[in-house]
Amino acid sequence: MKECTKCGVSKPYSEYHADKRNNDGKQSSCKTCTNARKSESRRVNRIKLLKDLGGECDKCGNSDVRVLQIDHIQAGEGNAHRKSFSCRRAYWRFIRENRKLFQLLCANCHCIKSYDEGDYNA
Ligand SMILES: [Zn+2]
Ligand SMILES: [Zn+2]
User: Fold this and answer.
1) Is the pLDDT of residue 24 over 70?
2) Same domain, 79 and 119
3) Do residues 74 and 91 share a domain?
4) Are residues 120 and 81 located together in one domain of the fold?
5) Do residue 43 and residue 67 come from a single domain?
6) For 50, phi and psi rounded to 5 degrees?
7) Are 67 and 19 found together in one domain?
8) Is residue 79 domain-shared with residue 117, that is, in the same domain?
9) 69 with 83, same domain?
């Protein structure tokens, strides 16, 4: 058993991710805490990216980060292109450097755009 430095709960070693830099070969915080921190930083980074792109829907001006989506202006190309990136971070960097290839849309405007482009599955 090992005590998590974040939540203070003692958990079996299997509840910790491996970390070679630590003496016992495990991270100091448990998987639950580590995952929570990761998703929190992903959330914060996403909001930062949305702000960098203007922070509101290009069509209607909705600025609610919960509904904002980054849209590749050339539909179709977007998905294949996205898959060519090894990780989210690389993709986000590309978005920042190529702002004009992307637009910020809220979920509503995104649906309308897909519909107008003939994608009736959306
Ligand atoms: Zn913990
Ligand atoms: Zn909108």
Assistant:
1) yes
2) yes
3) yes
4) yes
5) no
6) -60, -40
7) no
8) yes
9) yes
CA of 37 to the centre of ligand 1 (A): 10
% of residues, the chain, pLDDT over 90:
73
Taking the model in full, what pTM does it have?
A: 0.73
Cα 69 to averaged position of ligand 1 atoms, centre (Å) = 32
Q: Decide if 106 contacts 57 (C-beta within 8 A).
A: yes
Distance between Cα 110 and ligand 2 center (Å): 7
State the ligand closest to the CA atom of 106.
Answer: 2
Q: Could you tell me if 32 and 43 lie in one domain? A: yes
Q: pLDDT grade, residue 74 (50/70/90)?
A: confident
- What ligand is nearest to the CA atom of residue 5? 1
Q: Which of 8-12, 24-28, 52-56, 116-120 has the lowest mean pLDDT?
A: 116-120
Give the number of whichever ligand sits closest to the CA of residue 111: 2
Residue 70: which domain range?
55-122
> pLDDT digits over 58-69, tens only?
999 999 999 999
Ligand nearest to the CA of 108: 2
Q: How far is CA 64 from CA 54, 68, 92, 102, in A?
A: 12, 6, 19, 18
Q: Which ligand is nearest to the CA of 31?
A: 1
Residue 54's nearest CA partner among 46, 63, 66 is 63
